[in-house]
Batch of 4 targets.
Target 1
Amino acid sequence: MRKRSAVALTIVVSIGALAMFFPFLWTIITSISSGAGLSASPQLIPDDPSLSAYAELFDNTPFLQVIANSLGLAIATTVAQLATSALAAYAFSRLPFRGSNLVFAIYLATMMIPIQVLIVPLFIEIKMLGLLNTYVGVLLPGLASAFGVFLLRQAMNAVPRELDEAAKIDGAGHFRIFGTIVMPLVGPAVATLTVFAFMSSWNSFLWPLIVLRTPELQTLPIALAGLQGQYTTQWDVLMAGSVISVIPMVLIYIFAQRYVIQGVANTGIK
């Protein structure tokens, strides 16, 4: 009975994995099918695979500059969120103060506010600060993350406080405890936040579209949207851009997969 259940579960999981992977596989196949368009759907195994779509993409568009723009913004956003989230999480976890639970609850409640509601006030604020069409204007709203604070706080709560007490006996202060004891022990949660923060910035479309006006400053999602107008029926070029946009996320997830799963699991352990 158990063997049958295991086999059935394996079949179901395999079908689900195939269903999720197939669109990405079809995107890759389309990108290497030269001249693929609405009238010529690509085959599962292309007769004459070619990288001409990638060559055309980089030759006729500033795609390399666009990738550099998105990569720089994603790295800056990730570093900023790691720093602010780690410090705030340590304060909520190790420096309790009157009303800290209420402040934390209110801070988490901001996660329920859709970004569309904040677009207009954020735009007015950025405009008054003179930061339109600048990367600083794109970065400011994403310097802190309520999700990141929650994730790291839950991980820090699982770290035994006896380690803090032993360090204090040896004369360590909060900054030393934070840097040498707590942070090394919440590595999986940090890796999880790194992946989520990088992915959020890398895929961000609406806010960069509103703030950035110069084509040279545009990010990858905006450039991909522009390709739909420039290469309307050249699906191989469109899919080549899509494949390039996915590659960094696949690589970073493969590298941090074990830590991501462990970090998400640890947030539910009290």
Target 2
Amino acid sequence: MSSEGVEPGTVRPGGRTARVRESVLRAAGDALVEHGFDGLDLADVARRAGVGKTTVYRRWSTTTGLVADLLDDMAEQSSPRADTGSLIEDLRANAQLVVKTLTDPRQGPLFTSVIAAATCDPRTAESLHRFYAIRVKEWAGCVIAALERGELPAGTDPDEVIRAVSAPLYYRLLASGAPLDAAAADLAAEAAAAAARAGVYVR
């Protein structure tokens, strides 16, 4: 397939170039954690990754292209969903994973930087939306399985249930400053499960 017309940073390299991509994306993540999106510089990323500047500029072209590829990689590398046989336990696992990610010394600041960038950059916003769409679809399988077991009312929207788990956790991170801990994860999961059982998410 020709890559003509494909936006820089969206082509998936293979073979030896995969190692270059891995190094550059790791360096980009480190730079975002340290300096935020406004401080992201392709030349600095190249230096951190130990690769030539021309390689980075040719493949990603812009900082937004680099962040878009970083988000795509994060979606690809994310942990698979839980499959415990119980809706509430699956949702707890989802909430615990969100809390673990957002409180991680590296992942937490990285997500905060990317979310901040997405508020003012359309391409970063598009990439962030794609990242969460992938993760929601992955975890929606928990709700689909619960529907098949008869745990939830017919017509329940699986995506909405998963969004309801993570939304209050991101609110704590970005707005309220309330603790992000195991108790917060349990509360988010239990609230989403209770609402789902009550038919709130029936469409």
Target 3
Amino acid sequence: MTSMRPTGEWDGTTFAHEAFLFATDQEVLDRIVPFTVEGLSRGEPVLVVAGKRVRRLLAAELGQDVRRLATFAAAETWWRGGHGTLHAYDRDLRTLRSAAPTWRLVAEPVWLAREDGREWSRFEAVANRCYAAMPYYSLCLHDRRRLPTSVLDAVVRTHPLTWSGHAPVEAAAYEDPTRFLRSVQPEWDARPGHSAVWTVTAPQEARRALAAAVIDGWRERADDVVLATHELLTNALRVAPFVEVAFWTDHETLVVEVADTGPGLPDETRGYVPPAADLAGGRGMWLAWSLADDAAVASSPTGTAIRLYFRR
């Protein structure tokens, strides 16, 4: 008879990221309860951020032990958009890092069931890279009964671990974060013929041109468009003597493209990673991504082009 190993070979020194897909209440209990009890027995902080049904099941099963959890919170209140949610999550992780040598998290991103919450899969992918050295185990719960097939497909591609029934194992469908991001970003079609195009050598040039080009119907997004583009231009002009900026509208979407002839991005995930609090630079892509509604990257050793998408 094989004994259960809730965290497998995890030694508490690095990030472990598991997708647990369930279809019954009993499956939830069979996975979460041993995981939680093991953590409590080892003196590790155990955090639970889950939907109402999962919290009710766990509270009934743990009884008084639920008071020993470091956090027992409603996931329904956590969604602030992809960048806002990750920024708050990142702050909490760094606070934990300063207070505990290791911890474990049970998380149910209930917002994945909503159209506006599905971008979270991108941040799940990036977490594998930006939190690789964080000493915690993240057990992510995903309800097969509520989530569409497309979301479940993204789940298994963004988590390096899955559950075998008695221990976590490597997930066969897991993809490198950059590859996953490229597969879910907007299609990179040729610029339309009506695009406005400028070659600039200083961000101020593009700021003025863009501010003038944002036509009626888009005025409410003008500040976002100009500031996000300025951040990308500032980055691009550090690696190239000039930058090409293109601007066009496509039905309900305004698109800005910033293209340079530099050496390519060292890491295409940077727009999804919160910059460290003490980092003097490196905030440009994060800020630009957070101001836009979507983004796409085409990068190679001969240059980088980034498109930002703004909706009305």
Target 4
Amino acid sequence: MKKTLLAVCLSGATLISPLAMAEDSFPRLETIGVGEITAQPDMAVFTVAVEENRKTAQEAKQAADKAVTAFMDRLQKSGVKRADIESANIYLHPQYHSSNDAPPELVGYQASRQVTVTVRDLEKLNTYLDNALGDGINRIQNIELKVSDAEKYMEQARQAAIKDAQSKAKSLAQGFDTDIDGVWNIRYFDPMPRPVMGHMKMDAAMETQATYQDAEITFRDRVEVVFRLEK
């Protein structure tokens, strides 16, 4: 048993060539660069919904459709392109009343629909939201602030991460009385970046209205670099 194990170990050792071992044996320095860029949003995507309760399914559907149609018409008259408006299918749910001493009783139906809108002019966002509530929409489900040229900011964050890795490497090398002798390896994993929302200030003159233009979106990226050191 011992002889067999020794043979396996020796056989595995021959898989690593002396050249590969020599190539891998050199002084190195590993750093992680982090980049962060802050941008001001210039567009938004929001989702609103309507829920209507009526005695019959038809009445509930008609009420929900009426609110959605009125809101979509107002949006298009305000200059929003039809391609920037997405209306979901209607959903109908029976409503029951339950009691301890009787079986559930059907009392009506609830109809619900969602509308998702892309806003290209951020200054009009709050007006669109107010209009939605005026047209019978009764739920604001989500507001996502964005920038139209997100790829530009991600590239800036990436370049900042590269410079950060280089700066750290030079500083560390100098601290140990040596110099950088080129890059040996770069490890980068596309983070599928999602911008990080910053704070949103409130307009002092209008307590219930968020000044979305004062919000901040932070783009972040990182890179791992292995530098050669001079021998």
